[in-house]
Structure formats: structure tokens, C-alpha cells
Amino acid sequence: MSSPTHLAKLYRCTTTSIHFMEMISARNYHHCTRIYSPISRYSSQVLRLESIGHRMKTINIAQRSFKTSTPLKAIPPVFLLVASKLGKYLAVFFGRHFRVWYRNLPAETRADYAMKAKRHKGILYGILGSFGLGGYYYYYTHIVETPITKRKRFVIFSDEQIDEISQHELDILVDTHRDKILKKSDPRHKKVFDVAHRLLAANRDILMEHGKDKNWTITVVDDKISNAFVLSCGSIFVFTGLLSICEDDEGDSASRLAIILGHELSHVLLNHSAEQASFLHLLDLVLIIPVLAIWALIPTDATTVFSQWLIGKMTDLFLTLPFGRSLEAEADYVGLILSARACFDVRECVIWKKMQLMNSKDIQIELFSTHPSEESRFESLQKQLPAALDIRENCKCPKLSAFDLEKRIRAIESKFETQKMDDLLVPIKIDLIDGRK
Known about the structure:
Elements: H1 4-10, H2 15-25, E1 33-35, E2 45-48, H3 77-103, H4 107-119, H5 121-140, E3 143-145, E4 152-154, H6 159-177, H7 187-202, H8 204-209, E5 216-221, E6 228-230, E7 235-239, H9 240-247, H10 253-269, H11 272-297, H12 301-341, H13 351-358, H14 374-394, H15 405-424
Parallel strand pairs: 5-7
Antiparallel strand pairs: 1-2, 2-5, 3-4, 6-7
């Protein structure tokens, strides 16, 4: 991951971004064209961001000399995922049948096979080496770099494939929440629209450069769930429970919402969905060999099942879960940058401290979670704040008012302590009833 100082120097605001923020401060929004597509029957609002006043300038960043291979684009992603999962089941099937077959052989025959294996071990090593080289070539030819952070990662799925999957997910979500989707005239919908539009418009140069300039849609669901997410196809979903959390304290509620939406938008910009699907696909392929080995070599089914279960748990603990946490931390980092470029108050990342206190009743051990704890992510964002504030200043944003972060944290903690005591000390109202007739 690039250093905050490096990014502060690299991501200067374009003329377009600066001009956009000047218009924002003047409350002049006529540069934006709001277009409603057929999906608007679900009250999902489509954003189309037009260039404003000047030709859009893009940031030139050094690119790697290799790109993701293209042949897999024609292969449905579901087929690749099913094939890798099927490979593990076939490894179990053939491994177990080999063990049973070999155990039932006469001792002389087993000894003869062992001698032949020793005699031809060079051929066996050659076959294994060929598989290893083929696997390395497959891996290396699908290495790309993330936007902004320039991290090398393995990706086999194209943007089009991930967009197709997310479009199906969007259809399911709309059908599920159809009765709770707010109309565009609702003030809560308008607030989300304004924050999202400002965030997208200020970062349009980055989105365009990395092929993420979409016809964005906004859907606000009237539900107490405190959640928001952005689908790869360009759909922004926000639940009103999250709006309540953002608006519950003093400070800039729009900036709090922007930091969360910036985090979710970063997942799309960094193509984390494709990366995670590719990682799981690669992991399934790599695990085929150890699964085949344990089912072929361990003498009993019970011991084999336990061994495979243990391998799965260790894989989750040391590979899958840390990988998920690293993607979340990267999205926090980039989301803060996107919010800074849109001139939001990035100091409102204190929202994560509030999330930590809200979830304090739930025991969360980060080691066993796909997400960093709210405490960890808030500490990390605090370290990144100076660089984000520098980026905000480079964008010529309006100056921020005084903000005592420690005081704000203490106020939030005090409020939650008071609420906790109120939950413990529940008053009982006793009505005195005259029993005389």
C-alpha cells in the first residue's frame, strides 16, 4: 500500500474537482443532469455526472507493463467458481478410492508399485514440477495493480463478469425491499443523493481513469438496519438506520455518511469483488492437492474428515479472514481520500468510534472476523487523517472549523455510558388505585 505522504503528493485535485467544489459552496448544482431510467420505478435515482466548465483532466499514474489476461472473459464466472469447488470434491472421491484400492492390494503388489515409484521418481517429480510451473504461469499472467494503492493482486474475473453478477444481486435486493424503498421526494433520499453526487462528481477523474464511470443509481431503504453498500454495477444502497446513526450527534452528519459511502465506493473502485472471488478460486485450486493427499494417505475416514476440517479452519484463520480484513482496511484508506477530495470533513471518521461503542455488547474477536474491529479501523484512520487533510487542502476546500477530536470522542463515550445506565436502571411507575367502592 502506498504511503499517505505519497498519495497526498500524487492525488492533487483536478481543475474540474476544484471548480465543482466552488459551485457546491455557492449552492449551484445546475452542472448535474439527473436522468431517470426504467429502474426509477423502484425509486432508484440515476446520477449522470457531466463535465463542468473545463475538459476533464485525468491523473497520469505509472502503470505496470502486464495486464490481466483476457481469454477468461468469455467463461462465465459461475463456471470457474463451481469448477474449483468441484475439484475439491473430486479430490475427495479419487483420493478415498485410491486408498481403498491400494489397501486391498496384496502385499507383494504394493511393494512392486513402491519399487516402480522409486525407479521413476524423476518422471513423477517432472510431472509435479510441470503442474507447479503451469500454476505459477497461471498466477503470474493474472497479476494486476490496484488503483491508487498500487498493490499487486491476482484477478481472473473481468469487470463485465462482476457487473453481471451484481446486476442479478440488485434485482434480488429490489424485489426483497420493494415495499420499503423511499421515493425520490423523501428528504432522506435527497440527503443521500446530495452526499453521493458530491462524492462521485469530485472523484470522477479517478473513476473515469479506472473504468468506473457508471450511470450510478441510489436506493434508500426505510429499515432500521445500519448498513450501506455499493454494487459493482453502480447501485448505491443505503438503509435509514445508518442515517439515524450519522445524524444522532453534533457535527457534520453529511461528512459521516460520506466517509461510509466513500468506503463502500472504494470497494468498487478497487474491484475488491473480483479480487475476492479470484482469491477464493485460487485457494480452492491450491487446496485440491492437500485434500487429495490426506484422503489417499490417512488410513481411516474419521481421521481424514477431521484433518480436512482442520485444514479448512486453519485456511480461514490464517488466509481467508486476514485477506478480507486487508481489503476492508484498504477501502477505509481510499474512502478517506475520496471524501477528502470531495471536501467533506474527514475528521468525522469518528463515526467508527461510535460504531465501536454501539457494538460493544457484541463480543467481536478480530482474529475470527472478516472485518477489522471498529477500534482498529478508527485507530488506523486517525493515523491517516493528516495526509487526508493535506489532500483536502490541496483541493482548495473551504477551511474547517475548530474540531477537538479527543473532546468529541469523550462526548460520544459519555453518551453511551449514560445510555448504558438508563438500560440498567429502568424506572417503574406505580399507579395508586383506591380500592374502596
